[in-house]
Amino acid sequence: YMPLDSYSFGTPYPSGTNSEARIDNGHYAVVSPLYIKDGWDPNDLSNYFWTPGMLDDIIAEAGAVTDISGTARGALLAVNTNDNLDVFYKREVTVEHDETYRASFWMYLLEGPAKIAIDIKEKSTGKLLGTYTTETFSNTSSAKNKWSNVQLYFKVPPVEDIHCTIEDVYLEIRNDLEDSSGSRFYIDNIGLTSLGSQCPMPADPLDIECPPKPLILTNPMLINQAKK
Fold first, then answer.
1. What are the φ and ψ backbone dihedral angles of 197, each rounded to 5 degrees?
2. In angstroms, what CA-CA distances link 102 with 37, 157, 171, 202, 206?
3. Do residues 186 and 116 touch, judged by C-beta distance below 8 A?
4. d(CA 36, CA 66)
5. pLDDT, tens only, 125-164
6. pLDDT tens profile 161-179
7. For tag attachment on the chain, is the N or C end more exposed, with fewer CB atoms within 10 Å?
């Protein structure tokens, strides 16, 4: 679900470059955090900046973490941000009118500051329908070095209340903090759940909106002037 024009894949040593093996700024990997260290150049381990790895095939180093499932080989998304607001997860989903949804994921902050946004975009045009941003997680935040659950509730308006049909959309998760190169975190268990009308939810969920209607010129004189 990583867009092709976004983060670069972190390829382990010796196949990858030093930046790829490190999962350096602007890189990502889908990997168990217990085995990131195994992908580094052994001569570069004095600079290691992810969570501890394995001492051997069975015992983990002190302070090691797993994915949210708690299994040793469970994979997650390791992200090392750059200075851009790049998307690191993009997924096509189908939504229904007059329905409320919960988009959620788990985040483990290693190095801040970090701020994450969830965008909902119209598939056919790419226009933004709604967005949600987290707080800024600093290095002194209570979220550092532990798993935190991030949730977004959004409602698709009834079809009679809007001037367009919303069905297929993109759910995108991205960095929302410029000049944050080097911020590192793990992402796991990204999900979208339809709640139904009876499920409890925040009083003011984010309402996604139709994109503005395009301007249509019908006066020939205006059309000619527009071409000039």
1. -75, -20
2. 34, 15, 11, 10, 10
3. no
4. 11
5. 888 888 888 889 988 888 899 999 998 888 887 777 766 6
6. 766 677 789 999 999 998 7
7. C
Decide: 80 and 184 in contact? Cβ < 8 Å.
yes
Query: What is d(CA 189, CA 193) in angstroms, rounded to the nearest whole number?
Result: 12
The answer to whether the beta carbons of residues 167 and 125 sit under 8 Å apart is no
Q: What is the pLDDT of residue 139?
A: 87
Burial grade of 19 (CB within 10 A; 0-12, 13-18, 19 or more): middle
Query: Which residue in 126, 65, 59 sits closest to 92, CA to CA?
Result: 126
Q: What are phi and psi of 87, to 5 degrees?
A: -80, 135
What 3-state DSSP class applies to 161? helix
Whole-angstrom Cα distance, residue 162 to residue 73? 46
Residue-by-residue DSSP string for 77-128: EEEE--SS--EEEEEEEE--TTEEEEEEEEEEEEES-B-EEEEEEETTT--E
Whether the CB-CB separation of 13 and 41 falls below 8 Å is answered with yes
Other Cβ atoms less than 10 A from the Cβ of 216: the count is: 5
Q: Does 205 sit behind a cis peptide bond, omega within 30 degrees of 0 on the bond before it?
A: no
